[in-house]
Amino acid sequence: MEEGKKGGLLIVVSGPAGTGKGTVIRALLKKNSGIKVLPSVTTRNPRKGEKEGIHYYFKTREEFERMIENNEFVEWVDYCENYYGTPAKQLEESLESGIDIIMEKEVEGAIKIKERYPDSVLIFLLPPSFYELKRRIMSRGAEDTPVIDKRLRRASEEINYAGRYDYVVTNKRVEDAADNINCIIKAEKLKAFRNIDILKEISL
Amino acid sequence: MEEGKKGGLLIVVSGPAGTGKGTVIRALLKKNSGIKVLPSVTTRNPRKGEKEGIHYYFKTREEFERMIENNEFVEWVDYCENYYGTPAKQLEESLESGIDIIMEKEVEGAIKIKERYPDSVLIFLLPPSFYELKRRIMSRGAEDTPVIDKRLRRASEEINYAGRYDYVVTNKRVEDAADNINCIIKAEKLKAFRNIDILKEISL
Fold first, then answer.
1. Which chain A residues touch B202 with a CB distance below 8 Å?
2. For residues A64 and A41, is the Cβ–Cβ distance under 8 A?
């Protein structure tokens, strides 16, 4: 890989609930150990197995609102009755030290990140079909019908944003989706505008 | 791979003489059988092993000039005392039928192609160093000192164009360079703007 002394790549992955973002990102991290996940700050309850500082920073609504007042977020949203936010300090320190960062974001958050960091790479993960998405949401269990309906309506709205992303990856097979994202990252690092230093060096 | 019914991808590879464009493209074609080479039309003499209609369409200066008059080229240039041109009809027919096309082009030609086909993908192949480039040009043999000096001067000029390309790939090892170009092609096919059809289909 051609890499100069330069900042890390910021990769943002979105996609409807049930598309498999978490699973695909985990598979990607196994293939590419150079990428780190930056946890979001959230007020939602931890799901089984989710750990503080690894998957999310879990906060109360009061704590989150204080962080908003102190301008500690790159972006934050109120999504399905919970707050989600990206902590600015942790993100910028990681990128400056050359670490590639991947984040899971809902669509509004992703688009705000792109506005603030135009060189970030937005990837929209699609389910293979709407039918398959419904099946996956239902098979997660512990969800009642109104929640499923709400998620499907929301999924449909979110997919309308996909055209504003840089890339669209369909999650038919987790391994293929992770390979495709890995390729996107590799290609992005070869973009000419990210390699001005190398060009200056060789052009004697 | 996510592919709708759509046109092929046009990939243009440039780089100073001696960088190894031909070798890298041959390695790429072995990895990815979906890509075809569109031969250029040229007035230069065939090198050993070069075949009509596979590596180039070889023409006399008179024939080439007649083709210019008949507007048969996407672009053509006069480069190191020979004409080189891209035949419009063959290129557009291939792309419309969904075939991915790769072409080797000097910098002026590549930039003209990008102007006419903004969705084309321009890749600049760099030698690992100027020293290595000189060594490679000399090891080709059958070249005298003025030719070597001319090529090196020209190489230096060409590298100044690299910033106008989409991607920059360094040819340290042929296999790695071919893998990187293959990844670029895969990533380009996942670009959101090339997948509007899939988005329309899934967004019920």
1. 126-127, 129-130, 159
2. yes
pLDDT at A1: 34
Whole-model pTM: value is: 0.84
Judged by a CB distance cut-off of 8 A, whether residue B192 touches chain A is yes
Nearest partner of A76 among A114, A118, A40, A39, judged by Cα: A40
Nearest to B168 among A124, A162, A192 (CB): A192
- B73 is written with which tokens? 């080229």
Report yes or no: B147 at the A interface, CB cutoff 8 Å.
no
Whether A188 and B187 lie within 8 Å, measured CB to CB: yes
Residues 6+ apart with CB under 8 A from A41: A56, A57, A59, A64, A67, A73, A76, A83, A84, A85, A86, A87
Question: Which of A130, A184, A191 lies nearest to residue B166, judging by beta carbons?
Answer: A191
All structural domains of chain B, each given as residue ranges with its CATH number in brackets, are 10-37+98-202 (3.40.50.300)
Which tokens is A72 given?
């500690």
Chain segment B9-65, per-residue pLDDT in tens: 999 999 988 889 999 999 999 999 999 999 889 999 999 999 998 889 999 999 999
Among partner residues B160, B167, B183, which is closest to A183 by beta-carbon distance? B183
For chain B, 204 residues long, the average pLDDT of each consecutive 10-residue run is 65 91 95 92 94 92 97 89 92 94 90 93 90 76 73 83 93 96 97 85 65
Provide CB contacts within 8 A for B200, sequence distance 6+.
none
